[in-house]
Amino acid sequence: MKILVAVKRVIDYAVKIRVKPDKTGVEMNNVKMSMNPFCEIALEEALRIKEAGKASEVVVVSMGGPQCVETLRTGLAMGADSAIHVSTDTPLYPLAVAKLLCAVASREQPQILLLGKQAIDDDANQTGQMVAGLLQWPQATFASKVALGDKSDVTVEREVDGGLETLRLQLPAVITTDLRLNEPRYATLPNIMKAKKKKISSITPEELKVDIQPDFMILEVVEPAKRKGGVMVSSVDELVDKLKNEAHVI
Ligand code: AMP
């Protein structure tokens, strides 16, 4: 059984984001980039399924500019068997990524397509749902536990308001991963060396016959409003008065 994992290259979660002066987006030059944390969790889960003997191959796929190859190398160093780079310099939005993933999945024929529940740069939380729709595969989003059944189904636990929901899906299926599913491994030095010999194939959206033009445009990106300074109050009565008559929250 093959598992395909979509891994996105994003600005590292520890970097303080700066908006470009022309407000067209955020500064990407000379900024540390990493694999999206939810994608690391997706890859870790795929590797654990393989190590449990329930899958034979883990393939990572990333879409975007040439630097995505670095992210794919990280995936290979974590333990993926091979990688696919869908190479384009056109900015990609979730629908375009979903269409590309649909095309890659149709070629690769995985039994499970694993994605992060969301990318921490666009916070879209759309790609998994859209690719499941395009492929017409069942989907389980925000997975907190994944258990393979016999060869044809998978059971997924999801954290929902006030409890856990358990779903059983027929394979092939799309699963998106939540934070508590697992703790991703670090790549060890020997595995980083081994990853250099693993295969990364490259393909373009044109070769996949996918139109990636967005159907919307970003008008403006601005920083959040600066927090106003606090005020010291001398008594509870004064606090209540301010909350009532100034902030109007009680
Ligand atoms: P989003 O819908 O943008 O929040 O992204 C959700 C998930 O879709 C990510 O965690 C990735 O698994 C996948 N994804 C989004 N963009 C890309 C990309 N450019 N390359 C590979 N996977 C992606």
TrEMBL record:
GO terms for cellular component: mitochondrial matrix. Its main location: mitochondrion. It is found in: Mitochondrion matrix. Pfam families: ETF (PF01012). The keyword Plastid does not apply. Keywords: Electron transport, Mitochondrion, Transport. It comes from the Eukaryota. One of its GO terms (biological process) is carboxylic acid catabolic process. SUPFAM superfamilies: Adenine nucleotide alpha hydrolases-like (SSF52402). Residues 23-212 form the Electron transfer flavoprotein alpha/beta-subunit N-terminal domain. Belongs to the ETF beta-subunit/FixA family. Heterodimer of an alpha and a beta subunit. The electron transfer flavoprotein serves as a specific electron acceptor for several dehydrogenases, including five acyl-CoA dehydrogenases, glutaryl-CoA and sarcosine dehydrogenase. It transfers the electrons to the main mitochondrial respiratory chain via ETF-ubiquinone oxidoreductase (ETF dehydrogenase). This is Electron transfer flavoprotein subunit beta.
